């Protein structure tokens, strides 16, 4: 079977709206635009541990695309990752809908688990081409990624093997 993928969003997942203990403030200026970030250095080890334990590959699935390797990865303790190519959003689509189209196109039939806060990605995927086995783990953008999400992903990836 193809190596399963762990698709990782940034905003609302690694970078939540609310600051909880363990998060640090950062600024990022990809393409000269300044963003304020809240990032947690526990997330990197948590996610690389998940990938190692399950034989899956971590992939950025974010509008940050490759710039996440410069601005996000080093601050949370993630290595350089491949990313789903997501072009700037066509305004006829929601953020989730546009992203889901490009995720579907890129993953093809590979199995994947997707850590994501946009609530409409499930519907958008269901309306698209046929996919391999997949699980969307919905994340609350206020709180961001927690141990519980990672456990859900681990359980699903383990039963896939
Ligand atoms: Mg998001």
From TrEMBL:
One Pfam entry name: HAD_SAK_2
Protein name: Secreted protein
Organism: Actinoallomurus bryophytorum
């Amino acid at each position: 079977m193809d190596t399963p993928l762990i698709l990782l969003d940034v905003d609302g997942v690694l970078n939540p709206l609310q600051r909880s203990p363990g998060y640090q403030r950062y600024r990022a200026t990809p393409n000269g635009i300044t963003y304020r970030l809240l990032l947690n250095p526990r997330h990197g080890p948590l996610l690389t541990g998940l990938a190692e334990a399950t034989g899956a590959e971590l992939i950025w699935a974010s509008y940050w695309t490759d710039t996440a390797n410069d601005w996000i990865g080093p601050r949370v303790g993630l290595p350089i990752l491949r990313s789903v190519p997501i072009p700037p959003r066509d305004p006829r689509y929601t953020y989730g809908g546009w992203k889901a189209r490009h995720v579907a196109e890129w993953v093809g039939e590979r199995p994947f688990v997707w850590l994501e806060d946009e609530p409409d990605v499930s519907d958008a995927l269901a309306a698209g081409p046929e996919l391999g086995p997949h699980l969307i783990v919905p994340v609350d953008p206020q709180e961001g990624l927690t141990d519980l999400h990672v456990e859900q992903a681990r359980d699903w990836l383990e039963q896939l093997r």
